[in-house]
Design a protein that fits this description.
- The complex is a heterodimer of chains A (309) and B (272).
- Chain A is globular and about 70 Å long.
- Chain A is α/β, with parallel strands linked by helices.
- Chain A is 38% helix and 19% strand.
- In chain A, the strands form 2 sheets. Chain A has a 6-stranded mixed beta sheet with strand order 6-7-8-3-9-10, with helices on both faces. Chain A has a 4-stranded antiparallel beta sheet with strand order 2-1-4-5, with helices on one face.
- In chain A, a hairpin with a 2-residue loop joins β9 and β10.
- Chain B folds into 2 domains: 173 residues, Rossmann fold; 65 residues, no CATH class.
- In chain B, strands 6-7-8-3-9-10 form a 6-stranded mixed beta sheet, sandwiched between helices.
- In chain B, β7, α8 and β8 form a beta-alpha-beta unit.
- The N terminus of chain B is likely disordered.
- Classes of the chains: A alpha/beta (309), B alpha/beta (272).
- Chain B: It is found in: Cell membrane.
Chain lengths: 309, 272
């Protein structure tokens, strides 16, 4: 991830209008680069255009104008055969592990789908045996038992299904994985483990992630850089550290302020300060709490401990 | 959100046991849960999916479908009277008047074919004692109180014409128009964007303070708990594994599951 390396993904003045009349601009002149090996988080509320943007960068949608370059190649200039070649290097994991799998297919066929499409070894007389072997390895790589090949999606929990989706996404050893709200449908303890898995796979396989999320606390944990989107446009792009500690755009600050703080002492102090319209108190209060670990509340007696307000 | 004083509880749940008797098996969804909530107090029931938190919440209004649901034991006391022994007619008088509920998804809880104003007014009409005009006036002021701009115009609109946040405000108006003493809020902000969630949480706190309601907040989000609750019940596999003051539970969790839940919760202020 050196600064001089050319970006893996480069969006230039990308624009998408729907319906052909003004007022329906889903993506509004977005320019953005993503470097090899990094996690770029795309953050925004519902309707901001983040999903449309990911569909454009995978060329699942044609833009109104602008370009997407993947490893220097203009995606929208490619013919179908050339696009297929590039596509095997870009994979996607979707939010809902329940609707992103055909319930009538066995796990082996779900995970093998991209292999069968793109890898000649998965076809022919020996293809079936090779595929089963490869899918078993992939399932083990995502922390599942390699012997579940012949079972069906309904036999698995949400977290297990999301692992199956991830196995499917890494089967072709892609360079870029688009993760569209990959943990939004999961319980927090399951979410934590899936995030750990994604981090481990990224290191091991040198993956580049575009991580789409509305959950700023999750983004804080995974992102190297953050792009904040609102009404189709990027309002702020920066390192995670910059965006979270010194947000430049008022909308970013509004988003950060709205996130509930899982610490009753801090949450109440911040909220009181906000109600009093006294922003400085809130910020100073946050700064003073040091590392802010939840379990150590006992070491820092707070006057407002009775929770009265 | 007043501090927990010695006010006597309005809703008490004692050793509640809820089973779902299905064809092949019986699921013990709630296995002996007890808690109480006093006027002006917010009690959060926290847990992950399948923990039994929603089954517990729905039990308080006897809204679990019976069958397959069977109340296998315990008591649900509203002002000391057990709801589990009441008939459907009496429950119909209590729901919406003494005990009210709001749900996660306002789109599925509101009738798509009815104007929102009459859905709010209907609550009062159902409970009697209000003329059409009185119910309409009360519904208008309820819409106004929950922060719906231009209530006269909105009164005549249908749910699909409103944003998610406004729909949730309509649900709150309908839940509160008859001035219940207990509000049960089941994941009230889970389907909302974070900035809208903030507004709805602020609104709930404000309304609670104004009317002195007891609030039972069902949620999976420890951030929401930390912001709003006075006391917390942590549920896991149908049991209440920990109950306590919100500050104690967050600062010194006693149960290993509570600790795991707190550790798994992502935070904005992690060193990164």
């Amino acid at each position: 991830m050196t600064a001089t390396a050319p970006p893996l993904l480069e969006l230039d003045a990308l624009r998408k209008e729907f319906g052909g009349r003004p007022g329906s601009v889903a993506v509004d002149d977005v320019s953005l680069t993503v470097h090899e090996g990094e996690t770029l988080a795309l953050v925004g509320e519902s309707g901001c255009g983040k999903t449309t943007l990911t569909r454009l960068l995978l060329r699942l949608l044609e833009p109104t104008s602008g370009t997407v370059r993947f490893d220097g190649t203009d995606l929208f200039a490619l013919d179908a055969a050339a696009l297929r070649g590039v596509r095997r290097e870009m994979q996607v994991v979707l939010q809902d592990p329940y609707s992103s799998m055909n319930p009538r297919l066995r796990i082996v066929d779900i995970v093998a789908e991209p292999l069968v499409t793109h890898d000649p070894r998965a076809r022919g007389r020996r293809g079936r045996a090779w595929t089963r072997q490869r899918v078993g390895e992939l399932l083990e790589a995502v922390g599942l038992d390699g012997t579940i090949l012949d079972r069906y999606p309904h036999e698995f929990s949400g977290g297990q299904r999301q692992r199956i989706s991830i196995a499917r996404a890494i089967g072709l050893e892609p360079r870029l994985v688009v993760l569209d709200e990959p943990t939004s449908a999961l319980d927090v303890s399951v979410q934590a483990r899936v995030l750990d898995l994604l981090a481990e796979l990224q290191q091991r396989l040198g993956l580049t992630y575009v991580f789409v999320s509305h959950n700023l606390a999750v983004v804080r944990q995974v992102a190297d850089r953050v792009a904040v989107m609102r009404r189709g446009a990027l309002v702020e792009v920066g390192t995670a550290h910059q965006v979270f500690t010194a947000p430049a755009h008022p909308y970013t600050r509004q988003l950060l302020d709205a996130v509930p703080i899982p610490d009753p002492v801090k949450a109440r102090r911040t909220r009181r300060a906000a109600l009093a319209g006294d922003e400085e108190t809130a910020q100073a209060g946050d700064g003073k709490t040091g590392d802010g670990k939840p379990g150590d509340g006992g070491t820092a007696p707070r006057p407002a401990h009775d929770g009265a307000r | 959100m007043t501090s927990t004083t010695a006010a006597s509880p309005v809703l008490e749940i004692h050793d509640l046991r809820v089973d779902f008797r299905l064809a092949a098996t019986t699921v013990h969804a709630v296995r002996g849960v007890s808690f109480s909530v006093a006027p002006g107090e917010t009690l959060a029931v926290v847990g992950e999916s399948g923990s039994g938190k929603s089954a517990t919440a729905l039990s308080a209004l006897r809204l679990n479908p019976e069958p397959p649901c069977v109340y296998a034991g315990g008591h649900i006391l509203l002002d000391g009277k057990d709801l589990l022994t009441r008939g459907e007619r009496e429950l119909g008088r209590i729901r919406g008047a003494d005990l009210s509920m709001i749900f996660q998804d306002p789109m599925t809880s509101l009738d798509p074919l009815q104007r929102i104003g009459s859905q709010v007014a209907e609550v009062l009409r159902h409970h009697g004692g209000h003329s059409r005009a009185e119910a309409r006036a009360a519904a208008l002021s309820a819409l106004d109180e929950v922060g719906i701009p231009d209530p006269e115009r909105r009164y005549r609109q249908y749910p699909h014409e409103l944003s998610g946040g406004l729909r949730q405000r309509v649900m709150i108006a309908a839940a509160l128009v008859a001035r219940p003493r207990v509000l049960i809020a089941d994941e009230p902000t889970t389907a909302l964007d974070v900035t809208v969630q903030r507004q709805i949480l602020d609104l709930l706190v404000q309304l609670q303070q104004r009317h002195g309601m007891a609030v039972v907040l069902i949620t999976h989000d420890l951030g929401v708990v930390a912001e709003t609750a006075d006391r917390v019940v942590v549920m896991h596999r149908g049991e209440a594994v920990e109950t306590g003051d919100v500050h104690d539970v967050f600062a010194r969790p006693e149960d290993p599951y509570t600790r795991r839940l707190l550790d798994a919760t992502p935070r904005l202020e992690t060193a990164g």
